Amino acid sequence: MKVFRMAAVLTVLAGPAYAQMPSVNWLQDSKPAKTDEERAQEAERDRVYKDSLKKIPDAKASNDPWGGMRSDPPKPAAAPKASAAAKKPKAGSTAN
């Protein structure tokens, strides 16, 4: 009876760990490899697709009706000038 209880406890504890295991497909895909004819058809499709992409015209410049109305970006503020109080010599100091 103890063996049965231990097996049940181990089964209950192993369940969450088993759920975290990654699923691995040990069997290879059941799809057969492509034949030479299928590869040739796929290459032809790719070539036609690339040719059709070359026929698409380049994008034109943006048609922005308000583009000329926008102002230039704001200019950075000028560095603040030293105030007159900072230029004035302090009382008690001698100026040469």
Key descriptive features of the protein:
mainly alpha, single chain, 96 residues
Hey, roughly how much beta strand do the residues contain? under 5%
Low-confidence stretches: none
Q: Assembly state here?
A: single chain
Structural class by helix and strand composition: mainly alpha
The helix/strand order is HHH
General form: flat
Number of helices: 3
Helix content: 40-55%
Main sheet attributes: strand count, strand direction, barrel closure: none
Number of strands: 0
Distance between the termini: 108 Å
Evaluate the radius of gyration: 40 Å
The whole-number mean of residue pLDDT values reads 77
What does this structure look like?
This protein has 96 residues and is mainly alpha-helical. The protein is built from three helices and no strands. The longest helix has 19 residues. The radius of gyration is 40 Å and the shape is flat.
Q: What is this entry, summarized?
A:
The chain has 96 residues and is mainly α. Helix content is 43%, strand content 0%.
Structural topology:
Layout: H1 2-19, H2 36-54, H3 84-87
